[in-house]
Amino acid sequence: MLLHIPDVLDKNRVAELRRTLDAGPWVEGAASAGPQAAEVKRNLQYSTASPQFTALSQAVAAALERHPLFVSAALPSRILPPMFNRYENGGSYGDHIDNASQIDRRDGSRVRTDLSVTLFLSEPDDYDGGELVVEDSYGAHEVKLPAGDAILYPASSLHRVESVTRGARVASFLWVQSLVRDAAERSLLFELDMNLLRLRAQHGNAPELVALTGHYHNLLRRWSEAS
Ligand code: NI
Q1: How far apart are the C-alpha atoms of 30 and 39, rounded to whole Å?
Q2: Helix (H) or strand (E) holding 93
Q3: Are residues 162 and 206 in the same domain?
Q4: How far is the CA of 175 from the centre of ligand 1 (A)?
Q5: Residue 127 and residue 77 share a domain
Q6: What local confidence, expressed as pLDDT, does residue 157 receive?
Q7: Interval 71-88: pLDDT, tens
Q8: Is the pLDDT of residue 12 over 80?
Q9: Rounded distance, CA 113 to CA 177, Å?
Q10: Does 209 lie in the same domain as 169?
């Protein structure tokens, strides 16, 4: 499932983050990729050693955690600290699949990457190219969203970022371990939750709705992993 999550950050917040990010420091992105991915990765990454990194990263994570669509679709149990990348001057990231697990730099623990998120911090008009292309069983999907919007997609999918031939594409990227490891189960829960929300808006808290909401939670209890 590819899910567009609109308005994670408003335009003022995007501008604030960009002022800090644009001042750098940026380092070579290939340093943070596995060996296969490093060969095809041509971008810059905002230095995680920068004194501003933690505040920037927490701002993105907090905004996602407040977003009901993200929470319902991802059912996050762990969110790795968001990082930031920059593509310009022909920069691109060829076909790859993200590492199955990543070390959480805050405590050294391993986090399984069930879902990937890209949050766009450049407006689409500010650059040419730079589409995120995600392959799934229905084919290749090109994603290029307004600044402040995010895309959520399975970390298991083959994806790439097309070459940026004008301007700069700045984005935040991160991985999520979900309470529900199985993508099909997670997707069933998401659809059920969305329909329950619509029914509640139309009919209020009818007894049937209370019962179905209970079913949602009982399925979540059944399918979620112990942490
Ligand atoms: Ni990737």
Answers
A1: 7
A2: strand 92-96
A3: no
A4: 10
A5: yes
A6: 95
A7: 999 999 999 999 999 999
A8: yes
A9: 5
A10: no
